[in-house]
């Protein structure tokens, strides 16, 4: 059988056991930071091997990391019609910076404002992009012509060489 790690660039990864029967465990690490473990349990062999079954369990664990970053609002108290810059305080190397606007929801593509690829200086606009947002090389997000509707939770996810880091800030207009 095969397991895929998710995403458009994921390819099937064959899941094989060290032994045909008995205890064995394989762990696979995906770029999407999802860790999968497959464990097969020993089974009693029947006289007819065509009817023997090996129960298997998949364990899904999402690697959570503590956030070594925060987001600074400039100005701290933005007003309607003004602008605000949301600046992440991350100092390490970054590959992608992804901004989301979601009130109490998980990070999904439908909540995406924009994603910025630092290596190629490319920006991808998401469903929550209004045309009033821009990003800078340091990963900051600028929102102009603020409205009351811009208030809410903003989350930045920075992809690094190891694991992604996230921070969320509450914007009040």
Automatic annotation (TrEMBL):
Which keywords does UniProt give here? Disulfide bond, Glycoprotein, Immunoglobulin domain, Signal
UniProt keyword Transcription, yes or no: no
Organism of provenance: Pleurodeles waltl (Iberian ribbed newt)
Q: Tell me the SUPFAM superfamilies matching this sequence.
A: Immunoglobulin (SSF48726)
| Name of the molecule in the record | Immunoglobulin domain-containing protein
Which domain of life does the protein's organism represent?
Answer: Eukaryota
Q: Which Gene3D superfamilies match?
A: Immunoglobulins (2.60.40.10)
Which segments constitute the Immunoglobulin domain?
Answer: 73-170
């Amino acid at each position: 059988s095969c397991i895929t790690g998710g995403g458009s660039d994921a390819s099937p990864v064959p899941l094989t056991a060290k032994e045909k029967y008995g205890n064995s465990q394989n762990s696979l690490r995906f770029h999407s930071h999802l860790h999968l473990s497959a464990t097969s349990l020993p089974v009693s062999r029947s006289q007819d091997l065509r009817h023997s079954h090996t129960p298997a369990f998949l364990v899904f664990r999402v690697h959570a990391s503590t956030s070594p970053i925060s987001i600074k609002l400039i100005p701290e108290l933005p007003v309607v019609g003004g602008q605000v810059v949301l600046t992440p305080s991350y100092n390490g190397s970054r590959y992608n910076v992804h901004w989301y606007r979601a009130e109490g929801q998980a990070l999904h593509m439908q909540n995406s404002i924009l994603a910025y690829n630092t290596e190629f200086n490319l920006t991808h606009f998401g469903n929550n992009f209004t045309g009033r947002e821009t990003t800078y090389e340091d990963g900051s997000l600028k929102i102009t012509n603020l409205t009351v509707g811009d208030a809410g939770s903003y989350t930045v996810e920075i992809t690094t060489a190891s694991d992604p880091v996230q921070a969320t800030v509450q914007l009040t207009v």
